[in-house]
Design a protein that fits this description.
2 domains, 6-stranded antiparallel β-sheet, alpha+beta, 235 residues, 7 helices, 14% strand
């Protein structure tokens, strides 16, 4: 799973920025106001991850208050509930602080996608996984789906190439489903309908492979699909 770090997962869900790691760590050594910001952001991200782990823990949480001696089971349950609510309120405060600090850091540190970029397959929803795009020519990108995306779209190719995207002069995307770019030249790839945006083009690749490995495929090529099936590729 690409977004295993809770802080990075929160940031992706809130901003659609998909970071491969906590990139602000590289700014924590800077001895200026920006370095101070990065250090505070780093500490807050660590606090958020700790708080997330505590809330997810099935073990009873320790009290933040005093425990009167000799309290019965009913009172212990009441105090545990109070503790849980306090922990959730604290988590809410940390969440807001983390997002505010990240926003401030991003205003000073634009993300440079370069030859590789990562994006959520559904905006604001890390649960549908991440696609990683690797440029191999000026307008062509290899697309890899992480394990969470493969599971969400029922594709048997976790962390493997699922296709190639070509950005046209009109700014639209031509997806071609393949597990190796050489399949395009050999004629064994599957050319899919063009899409207006990048995430939809990536989803089309995954939807095609899900269909390709289902009983509904019936050895058909994309140009043999029904209009409804073609529309479903973009869902």
């Amino acid at each position: 799973m690409f977004l295993a770090d809770p802080a990075l997962r929160l940031i992706a869900a809130s901003t659609n920025d998909v970071l491969p790691e906590q990139l602000w760590r590289y700014d924590t050594g800077t001895e200026d106001a920006f370095g101070d910001l990065a250090r505070i952001l780093h500490k807050t991200a660590m606090a958020y991850n700790t708080s997330s782990a505590d809330l997810d823990s099935p073990a009873p949480r320790p009290s933040f208050g005093l425990r009167p001696t000799g309290t019965g089971a009913a009172m212990q349950d009441v105090l545990a509930t109070i503790d849980q609510r306090a922990a959730m309120e604290r988590h809410t405060v940390i969440t807001g602080s983390l997002l505010d600090l990240y926003g401030a850091w991003r205003r000073h540190r634009p993300l440079n996608h370069g030859e590789q970029r990562h994006l959520l397959l559904r905006s604001g929803d890390p649960g549908h996984g991440v696609a990683t795009l690797q440029r191999f020519t000026h307008h062509q990108w290899r697309v890899t789906a992480d394990a969470e995306a493969a599971q969400a779209f029922a594709v048997p190719y976790p962390n493997r190439m699922v296709g190639v995207l070509v950005e046209t002069e009109d700014g639209i995307w031509q997806p071609t489903a393949c597990t190796d770019a050489a399949q395009i030249a050999s004629g064994t790839a599957y050319r899919l309908p063009v899409r207006d945006d990048l995430a939809t083009a990536c989803r089309s690749l995954l939807r095609w492979w899900a269909l390709r490995h289902s009983a509904a495929w019936r050895s058909r090529n994309p140009d043999q699909l029904t209009p409804t099936e073609l529309d479903q590729l973009a869902e």
